[in-house]
Amino acid sequence: MKSIAFTALAAFLNVVCVHAASAKQGPNIVFILTDDQDKLMGSLDYMPNVKEHLTDKGVIYERHYCTVALCCPSRVSLLTGRAAHNTNVTDIIPPYGGYTKFTEEGLNDNYLPVWLQNAGYSTYYAGKLMNGHATLNYNMPFAKGFNQSSFILDPGQYVYMNSTWQTGTGVPENFPGKHILDINNERAFAYLDDAAEKDVPFFLTIAPVAPHAQVIVDLDNPQIENRNISAPVPQAKWNTSFLDEKVPRTPNFNPDVASGGSWIRDLPQLDADTVAYNDAFYVARLQLLAGLDEMVGELVSRLNASGLLESTYIVYTTDNGFHIGQHRLQPGKSCPIEEDYIVPLIIRGPNVPAGKVVNTVTTHTDLAPTFFEMLGIDMRPEFDGAPIPVTNTQISSASEDSAQTEHIDMEYWGNLNARNEGNSGSTTPTNNTYKAARVIGTNYNVFYTVWCDNSHELYDMKADPYQMNDLLGASNASSDFTSSLSVSTVASSAVNSTARAPAPGSTQASVTHDIPQLVRRLDSLTMVLKSCKADACRSPWSVLHPQGDVQNLEDAMARKYDAFYASQPKASFSECQPGYILEAEGPQSVIPYSG
């Protein structure tokens, strides 16, 4: 009996010890952050390892958006949980962006890796941190918050076979003839091995530059407009893959009739040679992503072999979306179109349901709060975002049209970064500064943009997902909203641009709202979002309706609020500027509803 009791006690203690060890080892997070990966051109369809190990084993978020469609400001928002107008990092180069601006704003002392270290996590980083993190300033100061790090530095961040890396506090090292993904993988896996040997939970970021275009900088003349930009360069073993693929020929691909707003509307149709080049550009992106997909398979295998897979969240996303040929645009990003803002987001890990598709609206400003919630860290009051629902319970309680998950704040400043990344002509606009709001509920789905020349666009994304029919009209260039068009409504006052027969068993109201009434609501929402902070970013309708009687766009469309919204200041710019200059941003506050 003593022998049996001793054996049982030993077994119990062994279970307790194993549990304690695993508790020390997790939860962990591996964060994969790609560069310029599209969602709407189907890039995930060519990544079988991502599907097998992440999508099929976790949750894919179908309505996840960046809030600024440009690498550096998007990464800074992601790493701080704050909108770009609050970080004041709005470009990829000084004076409005880049690593120099990031440090000048004090963010090197106050962002995700620093917070994680303070919470007891080991932090590792392999890959691109942000634009402007360069051989000339990598130690002015060193990027804080990392136990171990290896960064790809400018001016070789996007030179696939001749990149420059800087590790820890060492000096930069150049790697001619070696593919940038191979180096990234080696360093990421070395950090994973180090983390597996320690009884400390870890956060590992793997940030390859794939599938970004190749960019070669003339060091004697480094201005952006003089950089040589071409298709990305895949690893040699993928050079014969996907050769027959083409950019999806959606209705907005190189359309016969010009589409879009502002300067986009004036673009010429792409000729046959340019379309062929852009198809080849697309193929090169797929080939590069094949190498990245292979890394995902190896990562999961290594986590499994080290016993860490079940206690580790894997989060996969990108900094911004991408377009090739849509609305006659050359390859690039930074435009107020769905292709540039909607991005992949996949999460697998402890208590995350397998094979789940979630339609809750989420953004990059939500990721830092989500990491905090995953790891049991108290939220920070300056967060503009909120935790993304990850577990079954959280997902089931998240309503698609709740006040917190209905809207996306989109903002952009500048012009040169909207120029094409292809090889045919220039699409540099006079200015590409704008504010935009995406509002998505059960019965409505709209995209509203205010350009810095004070022209406006409005799209019903349910009826017109490719943004081919601007409901405000190509001639609109003012903020008086005098259009006489109308929109039909479903279930009280939801917005659609065309009437539809109700589904069996459903009810369709006959109430209609004209476009000016809709635009006044969207414009007021944009007014709140363009300068919001913290709670106001998460619940913008509460700024307009502090009594709490309006929770979403459908509530706001009640006719009793028509006069209230007509009296609001209009979202506008006093002038076009390349950065966040408050004097150019127009009115900054709304008038709360008093009843």
Automatic annotation (TrEMBL):
The keyword DNA repair does not apply. The keyword Cell division does not apply. Keywords: Glycoprotein, Hydrolase, Signal. The modification 3-oxoalanine (Cys) is found at residue 71. One of its GO terms (biological process) is phenol-containing compound metabolic process. Belongs to the sulfatase family. This is Arylsulfatase. The lineage of its organism: Eukaryota, Fungi, Dikarya, Basidiomycota, Agaricomycotina.
